[in-house]
Structures are given as C-alpha cells and as structure tokens.
Design a protein that fits this description.
Layout: H1 8-18, H2 22-25, H3 27-40, E1 49-53, H4 61-68, E2 72-77, H5 80-96, E3 103-108, E4 121-127, H6 136-146, E5 147-158, H7 164-171, H8 185-194, E6 198-211, H9 214-223, H10 240-250, E7 259-272, E8 284-286
C-alpha cells in the first residue's frame, strides 16, 4: 500500500530546502543527540571507523571525534545540501583540532543502499533518521553487512505516538495521511533480531514541545525538513482554508495557554555478533515509567 510509502525525492527536496534553517529549528534533535551520547558512554567500545548514518548537518561529528579519535569518520545523508552543511561544520572543527588524524568522508546516498564495503565499519550511529526509510529490514541488513564483528549499531528514531495531536486533528476531517507513520519499539526490536543483531536494548521517552500558536508548530516542522513526503498524500489540500480548519481543531489541545506537539523517541543499540543458529536472542525493552 503506497499511502504510507515515503516519496524519497520529495523528502530529499524538503531536507535540501531546510538545510539553511535546520540548526535553529532542530531543538529536539539536538536534545536527543545529547541523550544518545549519555547512552553511548555506558558501552565499552573503541571504534576505529564510524559511520554517521543520516548525518543531517553533522552535529554529532565533533563529539564523535573528541570521544573516540577514530581513524575514519564517514558522514552519509540522502540530502546533498544537508551533507554540504555537515562538511562545512566538520571541516572547521577538523582544522581547529589540527592534532587529530581523523580522516573524513562525505557520502550522498540512501541508507537503504549503503555504498560501503562489508565488514568495514566498527560503529554505526544514527540520530533520528531511520523514520525516513521505507524498508526497515533492508536498512538493518545493510548496517549489519557494513559492520565488523562485534560492531555496534546505536540509534534513535520516532515512535508511533509522535505528533499524535496533529494526526488526530487531521483524521477528524481528512481521509488522507498527512503525517509520516512511525514504527513501534517492539517491532524495531523484532526487526533487529530478524536481521542478525545480537542483544538489542531499546527504551522510549516522550517529549512535549510547547508553542503559543499553531503556525509556530508548522513553522518548526517545515524548517527541519519534516514535511509530509507520503506517496498517496492529498493534492491541493494544504492551502489556507485547509490550514485554518486544522488550526481550529488543534486548539482542543491547548493547555496553560500553550499548544503541545508530542514526540515519542525510541533509543536503541545492538551488536553484530555471529551467534550459533540455536542460540536465542532476547530483546530488552525499557518503556518509560
């Protein structure tokens, strides 16, 4: 069914257009990045080659270099203008840290077809980018193929409660999908096992951003590139009349003079370990209390 299938060209265009405004609007993305580093510090790993998968403007680069001093740090994104931002940002950091011997590569590609050699990367890092794939198993197989033995995959992505206020408001008067669909934490864990990962650990947290007006919510979504990229989306239904009706419906969620926008964030990590076929794998889930 194509209704929930992401139109990659449209998504690329949205992120390319948002590359200039992303830094100012991506408040949540930067917070989640910090949470990922807190989780990463608990793991014993010394990666020599790191892949930042879906790197966006390359915000993770400086901290990954400082923490591990890898021989190679590879940035991959399907939006060329975002990748150029990553190159600009990390080139400056690289020049300032002149004692570092880290080599950097910037690759414009789709994470569903990672153009790297098998067993060539020690750690794959992915912050809030997996939700832009159409075939999660394919992405996980690509990552598993790319990782070395005992390599680490650490990630964050959005869960199904993300933007539930917007989704419910839209559903009350439109039969079309205007908000991307997100995958449940348990389904992500199952997919990791299917694709050969070992000892997956997943937890979830919910964040609520608050705004004074509905227009501010839509502004932020636009300026981080999170525009509706679903195939089968409505044509000609995003004009002023449509948005005015949506704004009125969204007002039911206003509390303490603020409008909420909720985000369910799934954090996870897993290892590439070649287990025996009869050795069971268990996914550890830590739901938010």
């Amino acid at each position: 069914m194509t209704q929930h299938h992401i139109d990659k060209k449209r998504a690329q265009a949205s992120f390319n257009k948002a590359s200039a405004s992303y830094e100012d609007a991506a408040v949540l993305q930067k917070h989640v990045l910090g949470e990922m580093f807190l989780r990463l510090k608990l793991l014993k790993i010394n990666p020599n080659i790191i892949l930042d998968l879906g790197c966006g403007p390359g915000n993770a680069g400086p901290d990954l270099k400082s923490a591990y001093k890898p021989h190679d740090l590879i940035y991959l994104d399907f939006a060329y203008d975002m990748l150029k931002k990553a190159e600009e940002k990390n080139k400056d950091h690289f020049l300032k840290a002149f004692s570092s011997k880290t080599a950097q590569q910037f690759i414009c590609a789709d994470m569903e077809a990672i153009p790297l050699l098998e067993n060539s990367v020690d750690m794959v890092w992915s912050n809030l980018s997996l939700q832009w794939c159409n075939d999660l198993d394919q992405v996980f197989r690509q990552i598993a193929k790319t990782l070395t033995h005992n390599g680490l995959f650490i990630f964050s992505t959005f869960g199904p409660s993300t933007l539930h206020e917007l989704r419910a408001s839209l559903a009350s008067f439109s039969q079309y999908s205007h908000v991307n669909q997100f995958i449940d934490m348990h389904d992500i864990g199952d997919a990791l096992i299917r694709c050969g990962f070992s000892d997956p650990v997943l937890d979830v947290d919910v964040y609520t951003l608050t705004y004074s007006t509905f227009k501010e919510i839509m502004y932020d979504l636009k300026h981080i590139g999170a525009r509706n990229a679903l195939q089968g989306r409505a044509k000609g239904m995003t004009g002023k009349g449509f948005l005015h009706q949506l704004e009125k419906l969204y007002e039911v969620y206003r509390a303490n003079e603020k409008l909420p926008a909720s985000y369910e964030v799934v954090y996870g990590h897993a290892w590439k370990v070649n287990k025996q076929l009869d050795e069971p794998s268990i996914v550890k889930f830590y739901p938010k209390q």
